[in-house]
Amino acid sequence: MTEKQSNQKQISEVDAVDNDSKHNLHLADTDDYDGLTFEVIEEEVAEGKPVVSRGVYLAPNLITTLSLLSAFFSVLSSTSGAYYLASQAIFLSAILDGMDGRVARMLNAQSPFGEQFDSLADMLAFGLAPAILIYSFTLQSFGRIGIACAFVFTACAAFRLARFNVQIGVVDKKYFVGIPSPLAALLVTSFVMVAIDHPDWFAQIFKSPMGFSVAAAVWVVICGLLMVSNVKYFSFKEFDRKKVPFWVLILALIVIVLALSDIPVGVLAIGLVYAVSGLLMVGKNKVN
Protein backbone atom coordinates (compact mmCIF):
# COMPACT_ATOMS: atom_id res chain seq x y z
CA MET A 1 0.00 0.00 0.00
CA THR A 2 1.46 3.39 -1.03
CA GLU A 3 1.61 6.40 1.27
CA LYS A 4 -1.13 8.10 -0.77
CA GLN A 5 -3.44 5.11 -0.47
CA SER A 6 -2.73 4.93 3.27
CA ASN A 7 -3.64 8.58 3.72
CA GLN A 8 -6.85 8.14 1.72
CA LYS A 9 -7.83 5.15 3.89
CA GLN A 10 -7.22 7.16 7.07
CA ILE A 11 -9.34 10.02 5.70
CA SER A 12 -12.17 7.60 4.84
CA GLU A 13 -12.07 6.10 8.34
CA VAL A 14 -12.16 9.56 9.90
CA ASP A 15 -15.13 10.53 7.70
CA ALA A 16 -16.95 7.35 8.70
CA VAL A 17 -16.37 8.08 12.38
CA ASP A 18 -17.54 11.66 11.87
CA ASN A 19 -20.70 10.48 10.12
CA ASP A 20 -21.45 8.01 12.92
CA SER A 21 -20.80 10.70 15.50
CA LYS A 22 -23.11 13.09 13.69
CA HIS A 23 -25.83 10.46 13.50
CA ASN A 24 -25.44 9.50 17.16
CA LEU A 25 -25.41 13.15 18.12
CA HIS A 26 -28.58 13.67 16.11
CA LEU A 27 -30.24 10.73 17.84
CA ALA A 28 -29.15 12.04 21.21
CA ASP A 29 -30.46 15.48 20.34
CA THR A 30 -33.92 14.03 19.78
CA ASP A 31 -33.96 12.43 23.23
CA ASP A 32 -35.71 14.27 26.01
CA TYR A 33 -35.29 12.52 29.33
CA ASP A 34 -36.01 15.49 31.56
CA GLY A 35 -38.60 14.26 34.00
CA LEU A 36 -41.01 11.38 33.43
CA THR A 37 -41.42 10.71 29.71
CA PHE A 38 -43.05 8.01 27.59
CA GLU A 39 -41.52 7.99 24.12
CA VAL A 40 -40.19 5.64 21.46
CA ILE A 41 -37.33 6.90 19.32
CA GLU A 42 -36.12 4.60 16.56
CA GLU A 43 -34.28 4.63 13.27
CA GLU A 44 -36.30 3.98 10.12
CA VAL A 45 -35.53 4.03 6.42
CA ALA A 46 -37.45 6.64 4.44
CA GLU A 47 -36.81 6.98 0.70
CA GLY A 48 -33.65 4.93 1.08
CA LYS A 49 -32.19 7.12 3.81
CA PRO A 50 -32.02 6.41 7.56
CA VAL A 51 -34.09 8.84 9.60
CA VAL A 52 -34.86 9.12 13.29
CA SER A 53 -38.55 9.06 14.14
CA ARG A 54 -40.67 9.39 17.25
CA GLY A 55 -43.82 7.55 18.25
CA VAL A 56 -45.43 4.28 17.16
CA TYR A 57 -48.05 3.23 14.63
CA LEU A 58 -51.33 2.81 16.49
CA ALA A 59 -53.34 0.27 14.47
CA PRO A 60 -50.89 -2.67 14.16
CA ASN A 61 -49.45 -2.23 17.65
CA LEU A 62 -52.92 -2.03 19.17
CA ILE A 63 -53.80 -5.35 17.50
CA THR A 64 -50.58 -6.85 18.86
CA THR A 65 -51.51 -5.56 22.31
CA LEU A 66 -54.89 -7.28 22.06
CA SER A 67 -53.11 -10.50 21.12
CA LEU A 68 -50.89 -10.09 24.17
CA LEU A 69 -53.94 -9.48 26.36
CA SER A 70 -55.62 -12.60 25.02
CA ALA A 71 -52.51 -14.67 25.76
CA PHE A 72 -52.32 -13.24 29.26
CA PHE A 73 -55.96 -14.13 29.82
CA SER A 74 -55.24 -17.65 28.58
CA VAL A 75 -52.52 -18.10 31.20
CA LEU A 76 -54.87 -16.91 33.95
CA SER A 77 -57.63 -19.22 32.72
CA SER A 78 -55.30 -22.23 32.59
CA THR A 79 -54.14 -21.72 36.16
CA SER A 80 -57.75 -21.41 37.33
CA GLY A 81 -58.88 -24.60 35.59
CA ALA A 82 -60.86 -22.98 32.73
CA TYR A 83 -59.01 -24.96 30.07
CA TYR A 84 -61.48 -24.54 27.21
CA LEU A 85 -61.63 -20.79 27.73
CA ALA A 86 -57.83 -20.69 27.82
CA SER A 87 -57.72 -22.59 24.53
CA GLN A 88 -60.14 -20.19 22.90
CA ALA A 89 -57.99 -17.27 24.03
CA ILE A 90 -54.95 -18.80 22.29
CA PHE A 91 -57.02 -19.20 19.12
CA LEU A 92 -57.94 -15.53 19.35
CA SER A 93 -54.28 -14.59 19.76
CA ALA A 94 -53.45 -16.54 16.60
CA ILE A 95 -56.14 -14.67 14.65
CA LEU A 96 -54.90 -11.30 15.93
CA ASP A 97 -51.29 -12.27 15.18
CA GLY A 98 -52.25 -12.86 11.57
CA MET A 99 -53.96 -9.48 11.43
CA ASP A 100 -51.32 -7.14 12.83
CA GLY A 101 -48.71 -7.83 10.16
CA ARG A 102 -51.21 -7.50 7.34
CA VAL A 103 -52.57 -4.24 8.75
CA ALA A 104 -49.02 -2.89 9.08
CA ARG A 105 -48.21 -3.74 5.46
CA MET A 106 -51.55 -2.44 4.19
CA LEU A 107 -51.09 0.91 5.97
CA ASN A 108 -47.35 1.02 5.31
CA ALA A 109 -46.97 1.17 9.08
CA GLN A 110 -44.07 -1.24 9.59
CA SER A 111 -41.42 -0.31 12.13
CA PRO A 112 -38.59 -1.90 14.16
CA PHE A 113 -40.61 -1.35 17.35
CA GLY A 114 -43.59 -3.18 15.86
CA GLU A 115 -41.44 -6.13 14.80
CA GLN A 116 -39.87 -6.52 18.26
CA PHE A 117 -43.19 -6.03 20.04
CA ASP A 118 -44.86 -8.65 17.84
CA SER A 119 -42.09 -11.14 18.55
CA LEU A 120 -42.37 -10.65 22.32
CA ALA A 121 -46.15 -10.99 22.18
CA ASP A 122 -45.77 -14.20 20.14
CA MET A 123 -43.49 -15.59 22.81
CA LEU A 124 -46.22 -15.28 25.41
CA ALA A 125 -49.09 -16.30 23.12
CA PHE A 126 -47.47 -19.23 21.34
CA GLY A 127 -44.64 -20.22 23.64
CA LEU A 128 -45.77 -19.79 27.22
CA ALA A 129 -49.59 -19.94 27.12
CA PRO A 130 -49.87 -23.34 25.33
CA ALA A 131 -47.24 -24.88 27.61
CA ILE A 132 -49.04 -23.72 30.74
CA LEU A 133 -52.34 -24.91 29.27
CA ILE A 134 -51.26 -28.49 28.62
CA TYR A 135 -49.25 -28.66 31.84
CA SER A 136 -52.21 -27.53 33.90
CA PHE A 137 -54.57 -29.79 31.96
CA THR A 138 -52.74 -33.10 32.16
CA LEU A 139 -48.98 -32.94 32.86
CA GLN A 140 -49.08 -31.90 36.51
CA SER A 141 -49.27 -35.51 37.63
CA PHE A 142 -45.79 -36.12 36.19
CA GLY A 143 -44.18 -33.57 38.51
CA ARG A 144 -40.76 -32.46 37.29
CA ILE A 145 -41.02 -34.51 34.12
CA GLY A 146 -44.24 -32.70 33.25
CA ILE A 147 -42.57 -29.35 33.90
CA ALA A 148 -39.64 -30.37 31.72
CA CYS A 149 -41.88 -31.40 28.81
CA ALA A 150 -43.85 -28.16 28.96
CA PHE A 151 -40.66 -26.12 29.25
CA VAL A 152 -39.18 -27.80 26.16
CA PHE A 153 -42.07 -26.35 24.16
CA THR A 154 -41.60 -22.86 25.64
CA ALA A 155 -37.84 -22.89 25.07
CA CYS A 156 -38.21 -24.14 21.50
CA ALA A 157 -40.71 -21.37 20.78
CA ALA A 158 -38.17 -18.82 22.02
CA PHE A 159 -35.44 -20.39 19.87
CA ARG A 160 -37.78 -20.42 16.87
CA LEU A 161 -38.70 -16.76 17.22
CA ALA A 162 -35.09 -15.69 17.76
CA ARG A 163 -33.94 -17.65 14.71
CA PHE A 164 -36.75 -16.19 12.61
CA ASN A 165 -35.76 -12.64 13.63
CA VAL A 166 -32.10 -13.05 12.63
CA GLN A 167 -32.93 -14.85 9.36
CA ILE A 168 -35.34 -12.25 7.99
CA GLY A 169 -34.23 -11.45 4.46
CA VAL A 170 -31.90 -14.47 4.36
CA VAL A 171 -34.16 -17.51 3.94
CA ASP A 172 -36.50 -18.16 1.02
CA LYS A 173 -39.88 -16.56 1.72
CA LYS A 174 -41.62 -19.48 0.02
CA TYR A 175 -40.82 -21.66 3.02
CA PHE A 176 -40.83 -21.60 6.80
CA VAL A 177 -37.78 -23.19 8.39
CA GLY A 178 -39.40 -25.28 11.09
CA ILE A 179 -43.10 -25.27 11.83
CA PRO A 180 -44.37 -21.73 12.65
CA SER A 181 -44.89 -21.07 16.36
CA PRO A 182 -48.60 -20.12 15.96
CA LEU A 183 -49.33 -23.45 14.29
CA ALA A 184 -47.37 -25.37 16.93
CA ALA A 185 -49.41 -23.57 19.59
CA LEU A 186 -52.66 -24.45 17.81
CA LEU A 187 -51.61 -28.11 17.57
CA VAL A 188 -51.18 -28.23 21.35
CA THR A 189 -54.31 -26.18 21.99
CA SER A 190 -56.57 -28.14 19.65
CA PHE A 191 -55.27 -31.37 21.21
CA VAL A 192 -56.56 -30.17 24.58
CA MET A 193 -59.88 -28.99 23.12
CA VAL A 194 -60.49 -32.31 21.32
CA ALA A 195 -59.70 -34.15 24.56
CA ILE A 196 -62.34 -32.05 26.34
CA ASP A 197 -64.95 -32.35 23.58
CA HIS A 198 -64.42 -36.05 22.86
CA PRO A 199 -63.04 -37.77 25.97
CA ASP A 200 -64.39 -41.11 24.76
CA TRP A 201 -62.05 -41.04 21.73
CA PHE A 202 -58.94 -40.84 23.88
CA ALA A 203 -60.37 -43.29 26.42
CA GLN A 204 -60.67 -45.90 23.67
CA ILE A 205 -57.17 -45.22 22.36
CA PHE A 206 -55.15 -44.89 25.58
CA LYS A 207 -57.31 -46.96 27.97
CA SER A 208 -56.18 -44.99 31.04
CA PRO A 209 -55.59 -41.36 32.12
CA MET A 210 -51.89 -42.12 32.53
CA GLY A 211 -51.66 -43.24 28.92
CA PHE A 212 -53.29 -40.02 27.77
CA SER A 213 -50.87 -37.95 29.88
CA VAL A 214 -47.90 -39.77 28.37
CA ALA A 215 -49.26 -39.08 24.88
CA ALA A 216 -49.74 -35.41 25.77
CA ALA A 217 -46.15 -35.17 27.05
CA VAL A 218 -44.78 -36.72 23.86
CA TRP A 219 -47.03 -34.53 21.73
CA VAL A 220 -45.95 -31.24 23.29
CA VAL A 221 -42.27 -32.18 22.98
CA ILE A 222 -42.68 -33.16 19.32
CA CYS A 223 -44.47 -29.88 18.55
CA GLY A 224 -41.64 -27.99 20.24
CA LEU A 225 -38.90 -29.81 18.36
CA LEU A 226 -40.65 -29.30 15.02
CA MET A 227 -40.41 -25.54 15.60
CA VAL A 228 -36.61 -25.59 15.84
CA SER A 229 -36.07 -28.21 13.15
CA ASN A 230 -34.73 -27.33 9.71
CA VAL A 231 -37.71 -28.95 8.03
CA LYS A 232 -39.08 -26.67 5.33
CA TYR A 233 -42.80 -25.93 5.20
CA PHE A 234 -44.63 -24.04 2.46
CA SER A 235 -45.47 -20.54 3.65
CA PHE A 236 -48.30 -19.97 1.11
CA LYS A 237 -47.27 -16.30 1.01
CA GLU A 238 -47.45 -16.21 -2.78
CA PHE A 239 -50.84 -17.90 -3.13
CA ASP A 240 -52.71 -14.61 -2.86
CA ARG A 241 -50.69 -13.21 -5.78
CA LYS A 242 -50.98 -16.08 -8.23
CA LYS A 243 -53.83 -17.83 -9.97
CA VAL A 244 -54.55 -21.45 -9.09
CA PRO A 245 -56.69 -24.11 -10.80
CA PHE A 246 -60.40 -23.84 -10.08
CA TRP A 247 -60.48 -27.21 -8.29
CA VAL A 248 -58.19 -25.74 -5.61
CA LEU A 249 -60.95 -23.29 -4.65
CA ILE A 250 -63.48 -26.13 -4.47
CA LEU A 251 -61.11 -28.21 -2.35
CA ALA A 252 -60.53 -25.26 -0.02
CA LEU A 253 -64.29 -24.83 0.35
CA ILE A 254 -64.71 -28.51 1.28
CA VAL A 255 -61.91 -28.27 3.85
CA ILE A 256 -63.45 -25.14 5.39
CA VAL A 257 -66.88 -26.76 5.64
CA LEU A 258 -65.45 -29.89 7.25
CA ALA A 259 -63.37 -27.82 9.67
CA LEU A 260 -66.33 -25.66 10.68
CA SER A 261 -68.37 -28.75 11.56
CA ASP A 262 -65.97 -29.31 14.47
CA ILE A 263 -63.37 -26.55 14.65
CA PRO A 264 -60.93 -28.15 17.17
CA VAL A 265 -60.92 -31.45 15.29
CA GLY A 266 -60.59 -29.64 11.97
CA VAL A 267 -57.67 -27.50 13.16
CA LEU A 268 -55.93 -30.53 14.65
CA ALA A 269 -56.40 -32.54 11.45
CA ILE A 270 -55.22 -29.73 9.16
CA GLY A 271 -52.26 -29.03 11.45
CA LEU A 272 -51.27 -32.69 11.43
CA VAL A 273 -51.40 -32.83 7.64
CA TYR A 274 -49.28 -29.68 7.41
CA ALA A 275 -46.73 -30.97 9.94
CA VAL A 276 -46.43 -34.30 8.14
CA SER A 277 -46.12 -32.57 4.74
CA GLY A 278 -42.78 -31.07 5.73
CA LEU A 279 -41.44 -34.43 6.88
CA LEU A 280 -42.61 -36.06 3.64
CA MET A 281 -40.82 -33.35 1.68
CA VAL A 282 -37.60 -34.12 3.56
CA GLY A 283 -37.97 -37.82 2.80
CA LYS A 284 -38.68 -37.12 -0.87
CA ASN A 285 -35.59 -34.92 -1.20
CA LYS A 286 -33.38 -37.58 0.38
CA VAL A 287 -34.72 -40.24 -1.96
CA ASN A 288 -34.09 -38.01 -4.98
Description:
This protein is mainly alpha-helical and 288 residues long. The protein has a domain at 142-288. The protein contains ten helices and four strands. It has a two-stranded antiparallel sheet. β1 and β2 (49-54) form a beta hairpin. α3 (83-106) runs antiparallel to α6 (181-197) and α6 (181-197) runs antiparallel to α8 (209-228). The protein starts with a helix and ends with a helix.
Short description:
It is built from ten helices and four strands, in the order H-E-E-H-H-H-H-E-H-H-H-E-H-H.
Q: What count of helical segments does DSSP give?
A: 10
Question: What's the total count of β strands?
Answer: 4
Mass-distribution shape: globular
Poorly predicted spans = 9-25
Strand order of the largest sheet: 1-2
Give the helix/strand class: mainly alpha
The string of secondary-structure elements, in order, is HEEHHHHEHHHEHH
Radius of gyration: 24 Å
Straight-line distance between termini: 51 Å
